[in-house]
Fold each of these.
Amino acid sequence: MKSSIERLAALRAIMRTQSIGGFLVPRSDEHLGEYVPPSAERLAWLTGFTGSAGMAIVLADRAAVFTDGRYTLQLEQQTDGNAFERRHLVEEPPAQWLVEAAPGVRIGYDPMLMSADAVARFAEAGSTMVALAANPLDAAWVDRPAPPMAPAVPHEVRYAGKDSADKRSDVAATLRAARQDAAVITDPASIAWLLNIRGGDVDFTPFALGFLLLRDDGSASLFMEPAKVGETVRRWLGNDVSVQSRTGLAAALAGLRDKRVRVDEAGSPAWFGQQLRDAGATVVDAADPCAGPKARK
């Protein structure tokens, strides 16, 4: 097993090829979740720290790992002090630490792992932020586990309380009332609620990980590896919900030119807003449209 120092060296070598002087490694995955599958344990792979809240910042000549007061002792026990400075997430905000440690340096980040709001905090503090097309840590992590492939399963209406088509119709009405053509939904809990499906991609949480594009007519595109969505679930979803590989996301967003698309910029990866704006869509920053309805009991 490589040491943290060796892993840092491998990461820095790839960073140099991307012309960046720093890189952010958040705890979150592509759904900005607190609990992540093994393939998304990037912070743990790099630093050894397995707490549920944290971030690492890697510069050319120094690196720091941040967490809050719950994990102070764990951080000391799990990380190598020769490789990482240990910092308090609240008392020393990473954005402020970074601009003082590396003024004027190009700082790379994976836009699938950070929200637009999170990126803005670093930019507003004075850092030069660079969205990367490829995550350098993923390239350094040569034995990274495969993404989870647990099958999605139906969640019966007797437990869900309402048919998925009715839920989609209700949320679509909300979009029409706000003059929004579509909504991007990235929260696995919202997708589970809206489509009445469950899965096993994350330990102790019944999520089938994927992304959803909901249109104002109630139809939807589910971006989830097709092998996870068997015939039983496809029939359960119905003809108004198409299933595509995640590789089709960029093309689907590019097709929304001149459309008004709702995105929760605080709770979704920054990548979605960036892709939509590049495509010529109007991004409407608003809360996940499922958040309110799924909270009602």
Amino acid sequence: MHFGLIANLKRVGADETINAFVDWANKNGTELTFCDDLKDSIAAHKRFLPRHELPQNVDIIVAMGGDGTILAAARSVGSVGTPILGINLGSLGFLTQQTPSQLIPALDAIIAREYRIDERMLLKAEIAGQGPLPMPYALNDIVLDNGPVSRVLDINLRINGEDVVTYIADGLIIATPTGSTAYNLAVGGPIVSPNMDAMIAAPIAPFSLTTRPMIIPGDAMLELTVFTDEHKAMLTLDGQVGVELLDSQKVTISRAEFKSKFILFPENSYYKLLRSKLHWGVRPNP
């Protein structure tokens, strides 16, 4: 089996975790290829590939870092479909469920084929009047907001060609079920089980008490039109890829034609994860 590695070296414990991975690969005679942005830090390793070439040349990608590392890895994998194993070197880690201490048992379980694949939907964005975005996909969310300008926007939402609502707000989040525990949760949106086929439209600081988040079928076609009084707005994918929008510009958002694949193990439970990360059932300190 051939593993690829993507890692955020700025995270505490990254070097030790990578070294443990390399030692395990050497002992087990397993092929290991690193993303080439690690070349300067791990010069002793001989096999590197550019990030966009890694997915089609390995069987499994190990992504070490926080959720941002996983989001970037999922976009890099794209339609290739290479499964991703997330190792949490961050603090929250909704997507990186395994800890560094669980790395070696997880790798052993993968070799023994004792794991399952969890598929997650992505969103795709298209901007009217522009060519295809170089990276149009988002695993968590697509956010339309006012960027650096502190002004409300008028954002019209159409669903399957039907006019639904014009938000007066700081912005609008279109989230996947996976992203329901990210920015969507922070603005009061619902938590949606990641295996559901759905999208969430959650306004950011709406100028109306009756404007609430909506859950929309996953096969819907959403069309957003932003009105900015000649100021530019910003479209951001997974908080990492940003595109400026002009007044009256339209954005179409739909379900991507492929899904991201994540490696999970029998002990992994989404509801257990929620209890742990959100501290459900924990009594407050007196």
Amino acid sequence: MEDQEESLERAASDIEIAEAAFPDEVLVVGPLDAFPLTFQLCLDDGGAFLALMLPVGYPAHSGLEIISYRSKPKDKVRIDAVAAAVRQTAQDCLEQEMEACMACCSAAIEAWNEAEHLNSPPVREDETPMSSLVRTAPSYEWLSGVPLTDRKSTFQGHACLVKTEQQVYDAIRELIDGSNRIQRAYHNMYAWRLTEVLPDGKHVLKHDNDDDGEDAAGSRLAQLLHSRQDDGVVVVVSRWYGRIKLGPKRFAHITNCAREVLVEICDAGEEGNKKADKRKK
């Protein structure tokens, strides 16, 4: 009977092989030194993915499991077809007591591609698809900094100028939905700070932050905005976890990545305003 140490070694190796075979699709989201092992399989740039798990006893006594999956509403039929294909493949592999990651990833991608047109409405011969007529440009201009890597973890800052609280969340959604890579980040922590003018003319300072699972990271970003007295800006720091714990050093990286883009976007904006004021005089 296979012991747990050997089982864990087989499971970790299985995920690493899948990650090497599908570098753009497979994202390991946790350490590989203890069960359960988890990873994500990204299916497109629009946020469709499956969260998968290898439980204790894998692969001889338990099979690959789907934790959750997500897609845009229009792709519900496609993602359901993918989930069904993965479950069937995982069951087949379990019955043979063999590793399932590679087979399930291949089955998922194949099912996703085969179901590409299931949710698309039919187009008449005399009708031109709207997508060929209209291309929606991004509504917000994000500035992304240079990625910083330390012991296989990568950090990258992003900043965007905003005027209202609604714009903050719209901008963040557009940033994440518009990038397959950012969607796959282990954390997308953020903070924002702005002065909003109410209908009655009053000026109200608003601010908030979110850790996205990286405890206390959001508050550190908020502190940075406060100390710099930045206004009308949202800053996001993405972290892709490299399966090596960095300790407190990670907060220095998060702060430095945020400061880099804030200096560029906010200070550049202030300099531009000063030049405009001089021209008016």
Amino acid sequence: MDNSTAKPKLIAVVGPTASGKSDLAVSIARFIKQQTLASGAEVISADSRQVYTGLDIGSGKITKKEMRSIPHHLLDVASPKRTFTVTRYQRLAKKAIASIVRRGRVPILCGGTGLYIDAVTRDYILPDVPPQPALRKELELRSTDTLVAQLTRIDPQRAATIDQYNRRRLIRALEIVLTTHSPVPPITSSSPYDLLTIGIARPNEQLRSLIEARLHRRIKSGMLKEVARLHEHGVSWNRLDGLGLEYRWVSRHLRGILTREAMIETLTTEIVQYAKRQMTWFKRDPSIHWITTEAEALVLVKKFLEK
């Protein structure tokens, strides 16, 4: 094969929240170096909340120790006070991939934000739709249930995967569809990369146990203090609510809207439902190789890089 015209190789590690994606990506990167399959590998985060500074415990952002000397990209690249768009993510991720490839290393895209993954691996041409103040004002007057129903009617694919409690995302999705008169583009079989996508599969009960255990660890590690600190540093309650999951429900607890027990119970349910939406998104892609052990993943990686 003429390497000058070959597509650059890209490995993607996907799956539901709490399934162990970050650990697997690091293990793959270390394996690539140890087996001299390339000069090394680097990880690019594909998580819509880990891009923000200060969203550490609640987003499950990987720590320096957990990175085990593997370089990571697209963590802490935006202020939580402002929205970070998928268009900006796509641009930065493609730039990081090109840099990694130029240095003879293997890029590993790792995360659970399906739209981020697809924007890179399928090279979506994303609609460049500026804010529509008049339309937003009109949509803000509608109930959340009404917004969900409208999105389901005009873009059922996006409605099936969006956080249906996140009014900001619902309004933005409707804004794009109503402005472009076109739904989110369906996934295609083509990619600008020679792509291996590895998905982590976990039985539902095991995943729920992992989610519950992780939530208690995060609370013990200071997640409530993290959310309080973000608010003290100028992130509004409304913005924290819009950041979803841990940041939404912890902020509501801190405001006295619900008890600690209700916060934990609601969060557990919401995260489990979020994991189901993630799987709905990823199962649309028949090219994903689903694995249950690290060993299975390493076999796939070796075969992929040696071909």
